[in-house]
Amino acid sequence: MMKELPRIDLTSATPGSEAERRAAFEIDRACKQVGFFTLSGHGIAPAVFEEAYALSRAFFRQPLDAKNRCRLQSGFTMAADDYTPYGYSGMLEENAYAYMGRKGLPSDYVEKFSVGRLIEDDGARLPFSTDAEGQRLRAALKAYFRECEALTARLTELFSIALDLPRDFFAKKTSASTDSLRSLLYPQLSTELVNDQGMGEHTDGTLLTMLAQTGPGIQVKERGGSWITPTLERRDHLIVNIGDLMARWSNDEYVSTPHRVVLSGGERQSLAFFKLANDDALIECFPKFCKDTPAKYEPVVYKAFSLQKMNALFGVGDAGRA
Ligand SMILES: O=C(O)CCC(=O)C(=O)O
Ligand SMILES: [Fe+2]
């Protein structure tokens, strides 16, 4: 039984180096085994994480009516089917089980503040407060978002090496993806709460997810069914997992592993970055994984693949929202 996640260190993994090939091979193995690994040596400065945590925490500490002013009216930025959320969402507003199409299960004890690619445009109208604190939060989340974009670009190059694909394969498939970043605050477990569910068991719909955390809380269900609680040696290390999109693309050779968050003795913050694909990207079994075995899935355009899940989460169609 696995106790900890595989660890990948990128310190010497410069493009073209032997260390890069080794890291690609280790990532490949981790994705087949558990679909999760921890990441160090990635080059994001500790201060970038700490700014994002500190300013998010200051935001969440405000009274509810101040936080409620930082919501998008529609909940979304553009058309009704554009599910890039921006701004605040409160405790028990979302339900990770519903996202999985499972009805009647408890909602999540977590507060979130979300941004997407529009954060890179300083002129974009986004639901931050206009005071100095609001603008500092915006700058901190922008800085972290940009680091996440750069790092996932590097990680997807490692995937392309592992998968015998051209180095720029994923860059082309993700050039206009509606990636998002969510800053999360989980409350301390207390007798006022009806359960210890920070986030119900789910898989991510993503290509990749990168998670930073201030302390343990996420639990990963390994293939045997037992739960691993990963710990990080340092607050600037990351937990990376692949999502349903990568699982499907790899003919399920890579696993999109269920995970959940359990509340405990202290408050916990996390930063979750979700890397997606272009709406028109064709998701068709990587040649490496359908040489000897037939492709399990029909080719699908990413937009069609993702809408089904998002409709369930946001209560469109019959999946409902708890
Ligand atoms: O906050 C965490 O630790 C996990 C969040 C997560 O799994 C998600 O948002 O999909
Ligand atoms: Fe998740």
Describe the structure.
- The structure is a single chain.
- By secondary structure, the chain is of the alpha+beta class.
- It has a single domain (7-314), classed as B-lactam Antibiotic, Isopenicillin N Synthase, Chain (Jelly Rolls, Sandwich), CATH 2.60.120.
- Helices cover 29% and strands 22% of the residues.
- Helix 1 packs across helix 5 and helix 2 (46-60) crosses helix 5.
- Mean pLDDT is 92; it is low at 317-322.
- InterPro entries: DIOX_N, IPNS-like_FE2OG_OXY, IPNS-like_sf, Iron_ascorbate_oxido_reductase, Oxoglu/Fe-dep_dioxygenase_dom.
- Its EC number is 1.13.12.19, 1.14.20.7.
- Pfam families: 2OG-FeII_Oxy, DIOX_N.
- Residues 177-277 form the Fe2OG dioxygenase domain.
Question: How far is the N terminus from the C terminus?
Answer: 35 Å
Give the neighbour order of strands across the main sheet: 1-2-11-8-13-6-5-4-3
Average predicted confidence as pLDDT:
92
Low-confidence stretches: 317-322
CATH superfamily: B-lactam Antibiotic, Isopenicillin N Synthase, Chain
What is the ordering of alpha helices and beta strands? EHEHHEEHEHHEEEEEEHEEEEH
* Domain module count: 1
What gross morphology would you assign? globular
The portion of residues forming beta strands comes to: 15-25%
Which ligands are bound? 2-oxoglutaric acid, fe (ii) ion
Which radius of gyration do the C-alpha atoms yield? 19 Å
Structural class: alpha+beta
